[in-house]
Amino acid sequence: xxxxxxxxxxxxxxxxxxxxxxxxxxxxxxxxxxxxxxxxxxxxxxxxxxxxxxx
Length: 55
Fold this sequence. Notes:
Layout: H1 9-13, H2 17-26, H3 29-40, H4 42-54
């Protein structure tokens, strides 16, 4: 798979307070955290796909 954009968690955590608060006011912060959770599920998705192909 290719073409996916990924937010760098380390850089996100380094955002200055002004930027973070601006993102929060725009409703983006929860989307960033959802993105991080989704990224954490990729390995499980790939494993399940591989198991399905093997069967």
